[in-house]
Design brief:
Number of domains: 2
Bound molecules: 3-isopropylmalic acid, magnesium ion
Distance between the termini: 17 Å
Strand order of the largest sheet: 2-1-3-12-11-4-5-10-8-9
Order of helices and strands: EHEHHEHEHEEEHEHEHEHEEHHEEH
CATH topology of the largest domain: Isopropylmalate Dehydrogenase
Number of strands: 14
Shape: globular
CATH superfamily of the largest domain: Isopropylmalate Dehydrogenase
CATH class of the largest domain: Alpha Beta
CATH architecture of the largest domain: 3-Layer(aba) Sandwich
Largest sheet: 10 strands, mixed
Length: 361
């Protein structure tokens, strides 16, 4: 029996409905194993702007710091597109990542056998693909200074800075190599070292860190090539190590290999144990409240929380098995419905089915 305090940040758009499903599954697990999960709710993103005028209220960050883990839905809505960029919903997400020092973002791309026909790629290319993307999350061009917009030579000019220090590269590289040691011992470091100074330093530091992991095979790939390789030969990858911006782009691309962006979970970790867990997809405001979106990415994010933050390997496995089982029984949300005989269900029913299955074994 363990007691864990979990901060719940439902956020905007479809965030609340997918988080609700993950909570059903967590409840089933806590009952089965006699754990106590205490949920505390707070605001982030657009809903926080509406109530407090800022996307990340101090109270939210304070609660996060005193929790055992954070479970997040999604942030963002077009209705905030016209706001001052400093208070956009996305700033809340970036702020909490930075505030909790969540520099390591793990995004596992796994192919469910049941969903192979949902993949846009041919079956022989995709079968047995199993990739872990290790994305740097608190540095690079997302946070670099200087940034801004100014008048230069009589016209508006905007700029951002892509910047990484040796220590930032070193700590994320270590996460990638440690991760590879528990998998197939291969790291592909993705950069743009043929053009960018920051990538040349990236490569230099990664090669240095690799010396501590002689068992791990390291290779390097330019990001444009990596984007292409992901669709022509995804099976070659084990761990992909990359920076914040490249990781953002490649993880969306990699996620649909599995059939839908609605399947990809993520864990954001720091050296000091508070982790944040969120689906890789966005807030999809168009689908809000329609009970049509896929909750599996958020449910699998909750499983990652059990595994990475609470060391509950078995409980996490139960959730993964439950997801497979429900897919095997033919239940599909709209995004992954492809074949005759499959049963279309809504967000909430998918949550019930997986919770029920997870509570069983
Ligand atoms: C993600 C998202 C975020 C990011 C946005 C919402 C700020 O796309 O987690 O991949 O760019 O990191
Ligand atoms: Mg993204």
């Amino acid at each position: 029996m363990q007691i864990k305090k979990i901060l719940i940040l439902k956020g905007d758009g479809i965030g609340p409905e997918v988080v609700e499903q993950a909570l059903k599954v967590l409840d089933a697990i806590s009952q089965k194993y006699n754990h106590k999960f205490e949920y505390i709710e707070a605001l982030i993103g657009g809903v926080a702007i509406d109530k407090f005028g800022v996307p990340l209220p101090d109270e939210t960050l304070k609660l996060a710091k005193t929790s055992d883990a954070v479970l997040l839905g999604a942030v963002g809505d077009w209705k905030y597109d016209k706001l001052d960029p400093a208070i956009r919903p996305e700033k809340g997400l970036l702020g909490i990542r930075k505030g909790l020092n969540l520099f390591a973002n793990l995004r596992p791309v796994k192919i469910f056998d049941e969903l192979i026909s949902s993949s846009p790629l041919k079956e022989n290319l995709i079968r047995n693909t199993d990739i872990m993307i290790v994305r740097e999350l608190t540095g690079g061009i997302y946070f670099g200074e200087p940034r801004g917009t100014e008048i230069k030579n009589g016209e508006k000019t905007a700029f951002n800075t892509m910047v990484y220090s040796e220590s930032e590269i070193k700590r994320i590289a270590k996460v990638a190599f440690e991760t590879a040691m528990l998998r197939n011992k291969k790291v592909c470091s993705v950069d743009k070292a043929n053009v960018l100074d920051v990538s040349r330093l990236w490569r230099e530091v990664v090669i240095e860190v690799a010396k501590d992991y002689p068992e791990v095979e390291l290779y390097h790939m330019y990001v444009d090539n990596a984007a292409m390789q992901l669709v022509v030969n995804p099976k070659q990858f084990d761990v992909i190590l990359t920076s914040n911006l490249f990781g953002d782009i490649l993880s969306d691309e990699a996620s649909v290999l599995s059939g839908s962006l609605g399947l990809l979970p993520s864990a954001s970790l720091s050296g000091d144990n508070i982790g944040m867990f969120e689906p890789c997809h966005g807030s999809a405001p168009n689908f809000k409240g329609l009970d049509v979106v896929n909750p599996i990415a958020t449910i699998l994010s909750a499983a990652m929380m059990l595994k990475y933050s609470f060391n509950m390997e078995k409980e996490a496995k139960d959730i993964e098995i439950a997801v497979c089982e429900v897919l095997k029984q033919g239940y599909r949300t709209e995004d992954i419905l492809k074949n005759e005989g499959e049963k279309l269900v809504g967000t909430s029913e998918m949550g019930d089915l997986i919770a029920n299955e997870a509570g069983k074994r």
